[in-house]
Write a structure and sequence with these properties.
Length: 484
């Protein structure tokens, strides 16, 4: 009796732990690598170029599974994959569903998908599924092509979104002429809720990225979130703090578009770094929990940073800021390879043409991701330590990040407001061997050629490197000349 009771308790406890393993709090520890399933790797390893980025290029679930170690090697412990339903025509991206109940055969079979998720879990990685509940594929009025939403009654009356300031028009009309589902229809509403609950359960997804959030009444998203039962981060493509922030009342989080715009303004256009202070002041007003927002520099909907701003130095700074700042970091595939594609589909290049090589960016990502895991600084508040027009520093616990948006001039500061003790030696993990000592209460910081510094106490560095190992880790000559 006692043994059986103990086993029962352990079983119930394990189920409870598993069922809560992918909530918003669990995702705080994660660092996400966003992929387009069609663009990471082909099943047979073929690395020939893709003739037309507007069509399928051949990436698969199996190909992605084969590259999980590449992704994990940079310190990422979560992936965000494309929507999985069968799509219209050449809609390789996944946002044009025509059959909710079939897995897109261009990516592979349902078993291939289960194998991918299982393999990711075996490596300690979460899997986030991109999901769509606003619209279907481009069938215009031929709803018979769509499963299960095959009746005109399942859709809003045809109209186009022209005025993005009109909430009713945004919620009821079509985005890019894609038939707009009517979530007020009881069949549509319940079918969508059942679908997301079933797909998360069936494939053991750990989180969902929710497409086109403002285009659906927000009350529906609250039901959707409950049905999914895992962490949700929604796309609200807008830079207005109040507009984006209100949706955190319905979903766990949103993609941090306000930060995206701030990063491009400050690092790309080199606007004053005082704007970071203004940014966080606004964030504090309009978001109830910044720690679980999805932070990013690039994604599949916008021209890549390097397409707009051709300076790899400020790009690295922006990427490091995403990893360091409060929120859950999301790095778009190809960032580590200096990809610089333009408007969709230009920003959706195949990764295999890069050869999956190690670069100074991938090394930087690896280093910062490792410190993030080792120190759990994501659990610590973000404290501004210095700000002026061209220099910004903040701390998370005993980790200090220092940035400049003026890489053409050496930046030197004596930061007197910091978390360290007098006489303590601290080292920059981005460039091993770069250590300084706190003297006279000051942390001396010198940034050459736009470099990012991430300081930790020397006592935290587990492995000492020889000069040769330092040089191998970080090519100084390459770093000093890096402007693209």
């Amino acid at each position: 009796m006692g043994f059986k009771f103990l086993v029962a308790i352990l079983f119930v406890s394990s189920v409870f732990i598993l069922s809560n393993a992918a909530d918003a709090n669990a995702w705080r520890s994660r660092s996400i690598y966003q992929v387009l399933t069609d663009r990471i790797a082909r099943t047979n390893g073929d690395t020939s170029s893709c003739g037309d980025l507007g069509k399928y290029c051949g990436g698969t679930f199996k190909g992605l599974q084969n590259k999980l170690d590449y992704i994990k090697s940079m310190g990422f412990d979560a992936i965000w994959i494309s929507p999985i339903p069968k799509n219209q025509g050449q809609d390789y991206h996944g946002y044009g569903a025509v059959d909710w109940y079939q897995v897109n055969s261009n990516f592979g079979t349902p078993q291939d998908l289960k194998n991918l998720v299982s393999a990711a879990h075996s490596k300690g990685m979460y899997v986030m599924l991109d999901v769509v509940a606003n619209h279907v594929g481009s069938v215009d009025l031929d709803f018979s092509k769509v499963v299960p939403f095959n009746s005109p009654s399942h859709y809003h009356t045809k109209c186009q979104i022209n005025n993005w300031n009109d909430a009713h028009e945004v919620e009821y009309c079509r985005l890019a002429n894609l038939p707009d589902l009517d979530q007020d229809n009881s069949y549509v509403r319940q079918t969508l809720l059942n679908w997301v609950k079933g797909v998360v359960s069936n494939y053991s997804f750990d989180g969902i990225r929710v497409d086109t959030v403002p285009e659906v009444k927000p009350q529906f998203w609250a039901e959707w979130a409950k049905a999914a039962g895992v962490y949700q981060v929604g796309e609200v493509f807008n830079r207005d703090y109040g507009y984006v922030g209100k949706y955190q009342g319905y979903l766990d989080a949103t993609l941090n578009y306000p930060l995206y715009y701030a990063l491009r303004d400050i690092f790309g256009s080199r606007q004053s770094m005082y704007n970071f202070r203004n940014h966080y002041s606004n964030m504090d007003k309009f978001f109830k929990n910044q720690d679980i927002l999805g932070n990013f520099v690039d994604n599949h909907d916008n021209p890549r940073y390097l397409n707009q701003y051709s300076d790899g130095r400020t790009y690295k700074a922006a990427l490091a800021f995403v990893l360091g700042s409060k929120g859950i970091p999301i790095i778009y595939y190809g960032s580590e390879q200096y990809y610089k594609g333009g408007n969709d589909p230009g920003c959706r290049e195949p990764l295999w043409t890069s050869g999956y090589k190690t670069t100074d960016i991938s090394t930087m990502l690896t280093r910062i991701n490792q410190v993030r895991k080792d120190t759990k600084y994501y659990l610590q508040p973000q404290v501004e330590r210095w700000v002026d027009d061209t220099f910004y520093a903040f701390s998370r616990g005993n980790v200090v990040f220092a940035f400049t948006n003026n890489p053409d001039q050496t930046q030197t500061r004596s930061v007197t407001y910091h978390p360290y003790k007098e006489g303590q030696k601290v080292c920059n993990i981005v460039y091993p061997g770069d250590c300084v000592t706190i003297k006279g209460g000051a942390l001396p910081v010198t940034l050459l050629n736009g470099e990012v510094k991430v300081f930790v106490p020397q006592s935290m560095i587990k492995q000492k490197m020889t000069d040769d190992e330092v040089e191998e880790f970080y090519d100084v000559d390459e770093f000093l000349s890096m402007t693209i």
